[in-house]
Amino acid sequence: MRLGALLLGLAGGGLFLLSQDSPQPASPVSFVDVAAESGISFRHDNAASTEKYLIETMGAGAAWIDYNSDGFLDIYLVNSAPTKVYRPGKPLRSSLYRNNGEGSFTEVTEAAGVAAEGLFGMGVAAGDYDNDGDQDLYVVGYWRSILYRNEGNGRFTDVTQRAAAANAGKWGSSAAWFDYDRDGWLDLVIVNYVDWSVQNNLYCGEQRPGYRSYCHPNKYKGQTPTLLGNNRDGTFSDASRKSGIGSKPGNGLGVVCFDFNRDGWTDLFIANDSTENFLYLNRRDKTFTEIAVRAGAAYGDNGEVEAGMGVDAADYDGDGWPDVFITHLDFELNRLYRHNGKDGFEDVTFRAGLGYQTFHLSGFGAGFVDYDNDGWPDIFIANGHVLDNIHLFHAKTTFAEPKFVFRNLGGRFENATGLLGPDLARPRVSRAAAFGDYDNDGDIDVLVSNNGQEAELLRNEGGNRRHWLELYLIGTRSNRDGVGATVTLTASDRKLYNERKGGASYQAAHEPRLHFGLGALDRVDRIEVRWPSGVVDVIPAIPADQVVTVKEGAGQVESRFPPLRQKGAG
Amino acid sequence: MTVPDRAGFGLAGRLTIAMAWCLAAAALFGQPAASPYLQAVSQLQKGDTAAAIALLEPVLRQSPNDLRALTLMGMALAAAGRREEANQRFRQTLQIEPRFAPALKNMALNEIAMGLAGDATKHLEQLLELTPQDPVAHLALAEIHFAGKDFRKAVAHYQQSGELFKKDPRDVLNLARAFVELNEAERAASTLGDLPQEAGAAAHFEAGILLARISDYSGAARRFELSRSGHPDPYAAGYNLALAYQKGQQFAAAARTLEELVSRGHQKAELFNLLAQAYEKSGKTKEAYEALRTATKIDPGDETNYLDLIALCLDHNNYDLALEIAGIGLARLPQSARLEIQRGVVWAMKGQFAEARKAFEEAVERAPGTSLPYVSLGLVLLQMNQIPEAIKILRRRARQDDYLAQWFLGEALNRAGAAPGSAEENEAIEVLERSVKLNPQLAHSRVLLGKLLLRRGELDRAAGQLERALQIEPEEVAAAYQLAQVYAKKGDSRRAREMFAKVSKAKAEERDQFTSRGLQQIVKEGAR
Fold first, then answer.
1. Angle, to 10 degrees, between the axis of helix B403-415 and the axis of helix B372-383?
2. Which end of chain A is more exposed for a tag (fewer CB within 10 A), N or C?
3. pTM of the entire predicted model
4. SS (H, E, C) B339-351
5. Roughly how many angstroms between the first and final C-alpha of chain A, as a whole number?
6. CB distance from A356 to chain B under 8 Å?
7. In this complex, is the C-beta atom of B390 within 8 Å of any C-beta atom belonging to chain A?
8. Among residues A458, A395, A456, which one has the least CA distance to residue A430?
9. What is the helix (H) or strand (E) element at residue A524, kind and residue range?
């Protein structure tokens, strides 16, 4: 008996349920890697060396960003840089790919001025920090980061120094835009990892050829997160200590910004590697209190620390409260923390059916994504080990690993990976996974950055066989991106909750639209948008299968997300 | 004067000499210098019991109620080994004068020599009513009570014997032993400080054993060092010295001592095993490995050395070598369940769970009456995500009133995702309660039980189990974590904060959970 069905049996349910607010049978969805045929030739160079610099194995990031505001998601992929012991044959640059609107991409890095050459890149965050209507880029790196301001004409300007946004001296991993003080301008949080350097690089592993390994992060001191407060004039101030976010060090890798207690103020969850996670509760006075331990999400369910990497928050069980999912290394469990509706979480990793299924995999980029549009957020995980010689220690474990997808059956999960096509099974050393509907067809595609390998563009084929709705938000009093806005969509007797997040997962930037799967429901009865400013917009009944743009205070406005053209068409 | 043979407790002999002198001293008052009585005393002091008896017989014929002569005759007869006759004379004396202290004392000593501890005790206690401070009586009673394992009384009497007990190393050791039995380690150590340097190798050796028992390893090492010259078993003295060094964290000294034993030609597996431990703690892993290999060659039939070798390899993440050692060990000891389990652990740590499973199944076959193979198999099945099989195996074993299997069955049911209020959750709680009942000192069962009760909302019961778990294992993070949540739910913010702070402080270098390394820890738990 398949494990998934057995678990359902224990829960008293069946695999096939007929009521409308219960999940439908699995549909024939597949993910197909179309990177090469789409013109994405980017290959991440991890600068691997026999010195085993820890930075080599941790990157890098991937972003969806509509940089030219044409309604099609473009791609940004982060690269590394030469090191003391690594001199590449050609210059290493991050890459911006423009979506041509017909299924292909063109590299426009140089024209756009976002090569980030010389930066040993990690994560990336996309957001309109200056509220001028276009998406800016923050490229996170080791020892420094770069803020690219979008000039609106296809070009970016490096304004890092002027903006005081360098995060200098820190090993930044992931970053997220969010409006922590609700002043209508996006602030930036950067989670920082450890104080590794070339000078303090250690020899880890056995003293025999081939057995030197990347060190455990606990060999180094953790770094505190950085909060850059937007001064509304193109510059930032370091608010880390004053806000409390920089109060204690962690080995920060992943971050998600979401409203934990639904009070209208965005909170922060940071996944730390081999030390307790952080949940920073926004106290609404420009300060935060760290509450992960008492909220029950700092550790595994036995109080154990785990290697937290990717993290996301969403309402997976339809109770209206955001739950949290965190990925960890192999021989640890990926954890699902269910919100208790009050002040914390309960570890439901086993009860929700996740259990030991990913025990042999090391999860990095991950998130809640309703890939089959049945209205229940599924879980997508991009895996890859950290040790390139892991096979010497664990015979059945490899550096490159397959992806893993948990399908949500209405509050419990089953392993759906094997049903989604052979490209997910191909082993890769995956890191960032960015979710976005790049072909505007109503289902979520996945952009994956792989350490030392080509990137993957996993196009979702078949997810849009069920109904869907996407929501694009334009803030006016609130920040232009609408980050922090919460949305309640009502369709028949289903209520779906979502939140515009300015960052999630591991070193990734997802697309700005909110995606809702509607299953068999072909119309939406009501959409309520609560903006950070306090303004509430309500959209009355509308048909499904479209992108709806909502402008703060004005309700639904014209959308500009065209479908893909046929290749060759004008 | 020759020293009389020490019969019976030995004490009697020592005290008889003393008594003879005391009696002689008393006899000097009021006796002419050349009287037959005094001559008898002199003969007795020389050890010529026959002459003493011959001198005393006419004295008693003439004065049959002479208390001193009667007592001296008793002493002479006792020294001559004619103990029953001696007792008769003492009884005769006491019939005339029940409060005649010398008769009481010597009769008691004679009874001690005859093994009549009860009678001796009675007479000594009568004596102490007359002369409460009598050190000889106290010492004698101390020895009687020590032999009878009434250590509290033994200590009391030793202490009232003044400096007398210090004259004999055996008394010093006995007093120290008594303190050890009474868990008064400091007083035991202090008493052993009275053992003089010239006490003899055997005495120092015993002192070392006692000090080691109370974990005073540096003190023990000093005594073992003193015991080395003159001890009839130089290996034992040297080995114990090394062991004391090792336990006292003086690893280099331990290694040196053991190397010295090796250079003197001692070739015992236990020696090389201890040497390996000393080397490893000194950072000499290669030497540690070689020492253990030597141990396996010396005694190929002892699985301990293979197990220790495997553990050494695992500590250094050398799984392939660990497997090789397991293979060698199993080739020599094909029926060893412990080696098979350890081999399974290595497979599991390599992530080769199918092979680990085979090894554990094999161990179950070989040792069906022990719990460790079952729980190891159950754990690896969990990690292979074969939860129903894990539950089946553990249920089978749990029925045998096996607390370890019951704990793991509870864990397996929990990890199968037993929903609150379900039959599986009820079963989990039931088996965990049984596990706790069978072994109240196993913290892990209580922690899991507490967690499940917390989930059910039974906060008081949960708190009870978790608090007890923390008493048993104060550093158990899981207990503290769950307990913090219980307190928080009960609204006890202060205690919740304290517990959360405790959890925050505890950081794990290793991933301390149900991983393959957890198997190693569980093996240690089961091997206790």
1. 10
2. C
3. 0.79
4. HHHHHHHHHHHCC
5. 53
6. yes
7. no
8. A456
9. strand A523-524
CA distance readout (Å), B384 to A11, B319, B356, B394: 21, 20, 10, 15
- Please list every residue in chain B whose beta carbon sits closer than 8 Å to the beta carbon of residue A294: 484, 488, 496, 500
Cα–Cα dist B305/B303, whole Å: 6
Q: Which chain B residue is nearest to residue A358, measuring alpha carbons?
A: B385
| Cis check: omega of the bond before B178, within 30 degrees of 0 | no
Q: Is the alpha carbon torsion for A183, A179, A134, A322 positive or negative?
A: negative
Cα angle A121, A123, A126 (rounded to 5 degrees) comes to 120
Q: Does any CB of chain B come closer than 8 Å to the CB of residue A386?
A: no
> How far is the C-alpha of B131 from the C-alpha of B129, rounded, in Å?
6
Nearest chain A residue to B424 by CA distance is: A10
Number of A–B residue contacts, CB under 8 Å? 108
Measure CB to CB from residue B511 to each of A293, A304, A350 and give the nearest one.
A304
Closest CA to B372 of B189, B211, B526, B218: B526
Q: Which residue of A has its CA nearest to B423?
A: A10
Question: Which amino acid, one-letter code, is at B388?
Answer: P
Indicate the SS3 state at residue B443.
Answer: helix
Chain A's closest residue to B488, CA to CA, is A294
Alpha-carbon gap, residue A408 to A411, rounded angstroms: 6
Phi-psi region of A235 (alpha: psi -120 to 50; beta: other; left: phi over 0): beta
Exposed/middle/buried for residue B50 (C-beta within 10 Å: 0-12, 13-18, 19+): exposed
Chain B residues with beta carbon closer than 8 angstroms to that of A359: 383, 385
Helix, strand, coil in percent for chain B, rounding step 5? 75, 0, 25
φ, ψ for residue A83, nearest 5 deg:
-125, -175
Of A332, A351, A356, the CB nearest to B382: A356
Dig out the tokens for B176 from the structure.
């120290």
d(CA B154, CA B184): 14
Residues 418-437 of B with CB under 8 A from A: 418-419, 422, 424
Which of B319, B419, B513 lies closest to A302 in CB terms? B513
Q: Is the alpha carbon torsion for B453, B459, B464, B467 positive or negative?
A: positive
How far does the CA of residue B218 sit from the closest CA of chain A (Å)? 34
CA dist A11 and A23 (Å) reads: 15
Could you write out the DSSP letters of every residue in A144-170? --EEEEE-SSS-EEE-HHHHT---TTS
**pLDDT tens per residue, chain A (570 residues)?**
222 222 222 222 222 222 334 455 555 899 999 999 999 999 999 999 999 999 999 999 999 999 999 999 999 999 999 999 999 999 999 999 999 999 999 999 999 999 999 999 999 999 999 999 999 999 999 999 999 999 999 999 999 999 999 999 999 999 999 999 999 999 999 999 999 999 999 999 888 888 899 999 989 999 999 999 999 999 999 999 999 999 999 999 999 999 999 999 999 999 999 999 999 999 999 999 999 988 999 998 888 889 999 999 999 999 999 999 999 999 899 999 999 999 999 999 999 999 999 988 999 999 999 999 999 999 999 999 999 998 887 777 899 999 999 999 999 999 999 999 999 999 999 999 999 999 999 999 999 999 999 999 999 999 999 999 999 999 999 999 999 999 999 999 999 999 999 999 999 999 999 999 999 999 999 999 999 999 999 999 999 999 999 999 999 999 889 888 876 654
User: Out of A306, A346, A353, whose CB is closest to B511?
Assistant: A306
Task: Cite the DSSP H helix spans in B350-492.
Answer: 353-366, 372-383, 387-398, 403-415, 423-438, 443-456, 459-472, 477-490
Strand, coil or helix: A120: coil
Are A475 and A549 contacting, i.e. CB atoms less than 8 angstroms apart?
Answer: no
